[in-house]
Write a structure and sequence with these properties.
Blueprint: E1 5-9, E2 15-19, E3 28-32, E4 35-38, H1 42-51, E5 57-61, E6 64-67, E7 79-80, E8 86-91, E9 95-100, E10 111-112, H2 131-136
Parallel strand pairs: 7-10
Antiparallel strand pairs: 1-2, 3-9, 4-6, 5-6, 8-9
Length: 139
Amino acid sequence: MSAQLTVKKSGIYGKGCFALAHFTARKKIATYAGELVKGSRKIEARLRRQQEVAIKIIRIDENTAVDGAVGGNETAYINHSCDPNAFMRVVPGQKVAIFARRDIRPGEELTINYRDPYHPEVCKCGAANCRSKRRRRGQ
């Protein structure tokens, strides 16, 4: 667990991951932790996604994923936003790192734009540019 992150109730969805420290834009915040699901366990990753209410699986490549619900850390609670303050990147060693998209203040909830087909179509992020708002206006 990180001394720089905490999990608490989110205004976006369920629980969220919040900063306890200042993070400078473009700097690494943390590594997404969890069980590595590889190769023949690809079907297992799909089954896990179907069973989870909040999906905590991030695909690294065609044959590898990280399941934050098993052995994960606070980063498993990062919620989606259409106007995120963080982003993730696959780094060497089959890991996913979380970086600050802009400066993040202590107390601020970390968010990422998932752009992931496994997450619900209806967004609740509340951002001014929220995709759900655009859909409702017919854009």
